[in-house]
Write a structure and sequence with these properties.
Rossmann fold; 395 residues; alpha/beta; elongated
Length: 395
């Protein structure tokens, strides 16, 4: 697969073997019910491939940020949903390692699946504890990483265990790397980068990576107010990241001498408060009066961005254009989402809130690649090494 240099699960000999598969099953839950199972569905091709080839499969993942063994962070609902999707029972072991886990593995037949309980219930997970990694490795015969969205973290189940076993990339991880490599290294031209969200500091690595190589970088979301502040403009009560202002000054200076166009909003939608029923005002300009906050890009900006996206050969989008979860401030993100969905060029969206917006607007299936990893996708396109990916053996 283009842009991929690691050994693939396609080439692994797995018949009868115990295979540990790291997935990213960090799904949203409300009252113990899964509200979006797309991450579970994303790992199905790898799990089904292993089942068809007679592997005895152990699935592990984290869920949320538990402080201990809190029941609301149990993977039980995830195991049940995975079982429904594959049409077979998926048991849940009480932890990552230990006698009960070993007993569960011993009962697994070819093609059967056992899920290990939330990896973050074990304090050794986030510490990348070598003892935990070794214990995990002793339970299985080989390791498959299919958790691209967690591969930017050097944890025991993403990086540590990969040094204990023969390692392979899962089908999802393979596709993620291939699609994002295409954006980073071999984009069809023109390349248009669309960035939103709250913080300039979260996205500055992407701006730095593409200033000079992308034709256009389009900025929206609250991060634009740190840039406006750096320009000396009035930002009213808008969200401004103090640390981001100095970063923005440097970005603006770099953009001056760049071949890339760094495009900022020309109009805004304002609100008195971050509430759906607040007073709303359209601003033809970007200097925000006191007592108001910018909560969306304006109609002219949205139309301009949509036109630029429509002409792109490649689009990479990460971060909403405004507070799309509040209906009065959803129009900018909706317009950009519709433009990306309709774009004739290759479209890649980097997870998180952008994916949530596409799902809300019913457009997710019209994107060429919707990454499962928000932070991981950003770090990858920036050119950073992902520990979970680097630990895998080369093809």
């Amino acid at each position: 697969m283009a842009g991929f240099s690691k050994a693939s699960v396609r080439d692994a000999e797995v018949d009868g073997k115990r295979v540990l598969v790291r997935c990213d099953l960090n799904v949203p839950l409300e009252g113990g019910r899964i509200t979006d199972d797309s991450r579970i569905r994303a790992c199905l091709p790898t799990i089904e491939l292993l089942r068809e080839r007679g592997a005895r499969i152990l699935v592990c993942s984290h869920l949320g940020r538990p402080k201990g063994r809190e029941p609301e962070f149990s993977l039980r609902p995830v195991a049940d949903r995975l079982g429904e999707l594959i049409g077979a029972e998926v048991g849940l072991a009480p932890g990552l390692v230990g006698a009960e886990v070993e007993a569960g593995i011993a009962e697994l037949g070819p093609g059967e699946v056992l899920m290990l309980e939330n990896s973050r219930f074990d304090p050794g997970e986030t510490k990348n504890d070598p003892g935990l990694a070794k214990a995990l490795g002793s339970l299985t015969d080989l390791y498959v990483n299919d958790a691209f969205g967690s591969s930017h973290r050097a944890h025991a189940t993403t990086e540590g265990v990969a040094h204990e076993l023969p390692t392979y990339a899962g089908l999802l991880l393979e596709r993620e790397v291939s699609e994002l490599s295409r954006v980073r290294d071999e984009p069809q031209r023109p390349l248009v980068i669309v960035l939103g969200g709250a913080k300039v500091t979260d996205k500055v690595g992407v701006i730095d990576r593409f200033l000079g190589s992308a034709e256009e970088i389009l900025i929206g979301g609250a991060m634009c107010f740190s840039i406006f502040k750096a320009e000396g403009r009035d930002t009213g009560d808008s969200l401004v990241e103090d640390e981001g202002v100095e970063v923005a000054k440097r970005v603006l200076a770099d953009a001056e001498g760049s071949d890339s166009l760094l495009e900022l909003p020309e109009d805004l939608v304002l609100g008195r408060a971050f509430e759906a029923d607040t007073e709303v005002e359209e601003l033809n300009g970007v200097d925000v009066p006191e007592g108001w906050m910018g909560l969306d890009i304006g109609a002219n900006t949205a139309a301009n961005y949509a036109n630029r996206i429509a002409r792109a050969g490649t689009v990479f989008w990460n971060g909403p254009m405004g507070a799309f979860e509040l209906e009065p401030f959803a129009a900018g993100t909706r317009k950009v989402a519709e433009a990306v969905a309709a774009a004739p060029g290759h479209t890649v969206v980097g997870g998180g809130d952008s994916a949530a917006a596409l799902a809300e607007f019913g457009l997710a299936d019209r994107i060429d690649w919707l990454s499962t990893g928000g932070g991981a996708s950003l770090e990858f396109v920036e050119g950073k090494e992902l520990p979970g990916l680097e630990a895998l053996q080369d093809a």
